[in-house]
Amino acid sequence: MSKTVEFYFDVGSPASYLAYTQLPKICADTGARLIYMPMLLGGVFKATGNASPAMIPAKGRYMFQDLDRYAKRYGVPLKFNPHFPINTLILMRAITGMQLHHPERFLAFTDCLFNALWVDGRSLDEPATVATVLSEHGFNPEEVLALSNDEAVKTALKENTETAVKRGVFGAPSMFIDNQLFFGQDRLDFVEEALR
């Protein structure tokens, strides 16, 4: 039976973006199934007492240099977002809503947000910018806003986040193979090893 990788992520995390660019190929190469698990990183931080490494200036500077090294290794674009950190509550609700109600557009939608944040450096804290980005990519901003205000969607994101914390998640990205946790985009070699 083929293995699965459960990928807990938040678009506000540049490390999640890098893992997101690499996991589909790793799963394709190993015959594994990739399961996307949107969660709210702010909720995880609050529940676990953790915080973004960027909150410690020296660590934050190092983290972005290190992520840049990985982006070059992976051959993907990465630009530090001058608006970081971003409040992703509405974005992650919208992603969850797409996954639940429009699964055929889920990846295109998630791509759109990850790229707006970590390739184009857009300010997705601003509703007008979000609306512009969505329109540019063929999404209806009003429909997306309605999705993110849907009670079932709010509940699903909350439950994903609570489940992540119960399973030992303290940051993003976090990947599970069976019940084994792999934290960080710099652990993808271990993810691939476990799948093989």
Notes on the protein architecture:
The protein is globular, with a radius of gyration of 16 Å. The chain is an alpha+beta fold and 196 residues long. It has helices spanning 14-30, 41-48, 57-74, 89-101, 106-118, 127-136, 141-148, 151-166, 188-195; strands at residues 4-9, 33-38, 174-177, 180-183. The protein contains 9 helices and 4 strands, in the order E-H-E-H-H-H-H-H-H-H-E-E-H. The chain has one domain (4-195): Glutaredoxin.
Brief write-up:
By secondary structure, this protein is an alpha+beta fold. The chain has nine helices and four strands. It has helices spanning 14-30, 41-48, 57-74, 89-101, 106-118, 127-136, 141-148, 151-166, 188-195, and strands spanning 4-9, 33-38, 174-177, 180-183.
Give keywords.
196 residues, alpha+beta, Glutaredoxin, 9 helices, 10% strand, globular, DSBA-like_thioredoxin_dom
Blueprint of the fold:
Layout: E1 4-9, H1 14-30, E2 33-38, H2 41-48, H3 57-74, H4 89-101, H5 106-118, H6 127-136, H7 141-148, H8 151-166, E3 174-177, E4 180-183, H9 188-195
Helix pairs in contact: 1-3, 1-9, 2-8, 4-5, 4-7, 4-8
Kindly report the CATH topology: Glutaredoxin
What is the count of helical runs?
A: 9
Counting helices, strands and paired strands, the structural category is alpha+beta
Major β-sheet profile:
4 strands, mixed
- Give the overall silhouette: globular
Return Rg in Å: 16 Å
CATH architecture annotation: 3-Layer(aba) Sandwich
Strand content: 5-15%
Which CATH class is shown? Alpha Beta
Q: How many strands in all?
A: 4
CATH superfamily: Glutaredoxin
Could you spell the SSE succession in H and E letters?
EHEHHHHHHHEEH
Mean pLDDT: 96
Measured distance between first and last alpha carbons: 12 Å
Number of domains: 1
Q: Which ranges are low-confidence, i.e. pLDDT below 50, for 5 or more consecutive residues? A: none
Protein name: 2-hydroxychromene-2-carboxylate isomerase
Family: Belongs to the GST superfamily. NadH family.
Active site: 13
EC number: 5.99.1.4
